[in-house]
Specification:
Length: 525
């Protein structure tokens, strides 16, 4: 879920100037979607891709336009083309961007059709297709799909109808944080009946019939490929993409049919050649484990995993988390350390092993940063699960390599009540209800900025609704020290979507009553 904030900036002391682009001036069409284009390192912003709907040519065919901006919001190029979309009387779909990936001088653009009434759809995201843009000549390719890693061109004309046969066996690609794309082979068993009924009873057969996965370059050539699930054994592996950086690829594996004590693990592959470097089983001498995040340094990969002390592994029965560090080159586990919620004492008066904090609620880590010295930075957020769950304060924590607390600070912010949403903390994070927005690396000196949203309203309920007062919170970690600042926002209502920008800036998309504006606000840290 994308986080939307209603706000309009006053220029505060820490804002110097802005760069602005009126999105309505870039195209005559209706603004549909946007995506950040990252450099090959997966961190630095290269630019932005904007998608517009120009015209409806027939029931399932539209004229779209792509506009490419550089990181300073300067327009580089644009192109119009016809685009088909799957649609039915029962299920309504919309076109959206799946990803945009820059690899060398190529921009790979993925789109899909997303079901609007998702409760009726067995597969919510369908009809995955792609175009490429040459960044030297600004030439767009024809649209194509992949079936068994083979490119098939697509053409549309007014009146073209898209059927299930056109997309049922096409492959979805995943962008890695290196110079590659990743994908699973088309299942050999892939019945179209799944489109009209629950996929669950077919799931094992479909999974077992996926016989390989591969890493692709910018021209869709296979860089390396691994065969899986050979033969007709009752034991088979289910893989999913977990994370990557420029060196390694992490895949989560679930081995079905095995009598092993723990069938789940994360495999660590060399992203460039496919060598299996190591494996992290979900095993611990004392606790049950489930992976939450991975963080990378030049030589190490750290898994931050949730810890449970019973077999049920319920969301609200997490007792803490662990940091498990592997060497990137050897795949050897270097060390693991646990952090239990009770370790927050004396900073927080934890009242039970599941992290209840007095009568306050609980706190949940939102993001981690692994430093080269072995310390971990954590941004966490308070919440209370109830009939109308509540989002509470923010917490910044720095842990030493042994997971003892070096630094702890609570940042007060207004409570947000989520009407009729009773959910566990992990579910609230999954659906984007927390106020933490994102982190960004400022430079190569392990300095970071963290952004969060806050509504600091005062007055009666009517006054708060009529004149909301919003704040964007900024936390920096520079020269080993934390600093805190806030950008005061006006009381005029408009819809703004904050996002990543080039270093030293924050990107804002403001949706007004008559136009959409994208701007970069410079923040002096």
């Amino acid at each position: 879920m994308k986080k939307h904030i209603t706000l309009l900036f006053l220029f505060f002391v820490s804002i110097a100037f802005s760069q602005v682009q009126k999105l309505g001036a870039l195209s005559s069409g209706q603004f549909l979607d946007s995506a950040i284009i990252y450099e090959e390192n997966g961190e630095d912003v290269w630019g932005y891709l904007l998608a517009y709907k120009i015209d409806k040519k027939s029931k399932e065919v539209y004229e779209l336009e792509y506009v490419v901006l550089d990181k300073n919001l300067n327009k580089l190029t644009s192109a119009k083309f016809l685009e088909g979309m799957f649609d039915t009387l029962l299920l309504k779909f919309k076109i959206e961007l799946t990803f945009v990936k820059k690899i060398k001088n190529q921009l790979i653009i993925g789109i899909n059709d997303k079901a609007n009434n998702t409760e009726l759809a067995a597969r919510v995201y369908i009809n995955h297709r792609f175009r490429t843009l040459n960044l030297d000549t600004f030439a767009f390719s024809k649209e194509f799909v992949l079936e068994d890693f083979k490119m098939i061109d697509r053409d549309y004309a007014a009146g073209t109808n898209t059927t299930i046969d056109d997309f049922w066996n096409v492959q979805q690609l995943i962008k890695t944080k290196g110079n590659y794309l990743f994908g699973f082979a088309t299942p050999a068993y892939n019945p179209k009946a799944v489109a009209y009924m629950s996929e669950q009873r077919h799931k094992d057969k479909i999974t077992k019939s996926i016989k390989s996965f591969a890493v692709l370059d910018e021209k869709m050539n296979i860089v390396w490929k691994k065969e899986i699930n050979a033969g007709d054994s009752k034991i088979f592996d289910e893989y999913s993409y977990f994370d990557s950086d420029t060196d390694v690829l992490l895949l989560q594996k679930y081995r079905h049919g095995t009598k092993d004590k723990e069938p789940r693990s994360i495999e660590i592959y060399n992203l460039h050649n496919g060598d299996l470097i190591g494996e992290m089983p979900f095993l611990d001498a004392k606790y049950l484990m489930f992976p939450d995040r991975a963080e990378f340094t030049k030589d190490k990969v750290a898994f931050y995993v949730q810890l449970y002390d019973n077999k049920n592994m319920l969301y609200e029965e997490v007792v803490g988390f662990s940091k498990v560090i592997f060497d990137k080159k050897t795949g050897k586990e270097l060390n693991r350390d646990h952090f239990l919620w009770e370790n927050f004492k004396p900073h927080l008066q934890i009242t039970n092993k599941y992290g209840e904090y007095d009568k306050y609620g609980k706190i949940l880590p939102q993001d981690f940063v692994l430093l080269e010295n072995g310390n971990t930075l954590i941004v966490a957020e308070g919440y209370k699960s109830k009939r109308s769950s509540e989002i509470l304060d923010l917490f910044m924590v720095e842990l030493l390599p042994d997971m003892s607390i070096k630094y702890f600070k609570k940042i007060d912010k207004n409570k947000i009540s989520l009407q009729n949403i009773n959910a566990a903390g992990i579910e609230l994070r999954q659906y984007g209800y927390f106020d933490f927005l994102y982190k960004q690396k400022l430079n190569n000196r392990e300095e970071y900025v963290f952004f969060y949203a806050n509504n600091e309203r005062e007055g009666s309920k009517y006054e708060r609704r009529k004149n909301p007062s919003w704040v964007l919170g900024i936390i920096t970690f520079v020269d080993g020290e934390f600093n805190y600042d806030k950008l005061q926002l006006t009381k005029k209502a408009s819809q703004i979507i904050p996002g990543k920008a080039k270093k030293g800036y924050v990107r804002l998309i403001e949706v007004g009553s008559d136009d959409v504006e994208m701007r970069l606000e410079k923040v002096n840290y």
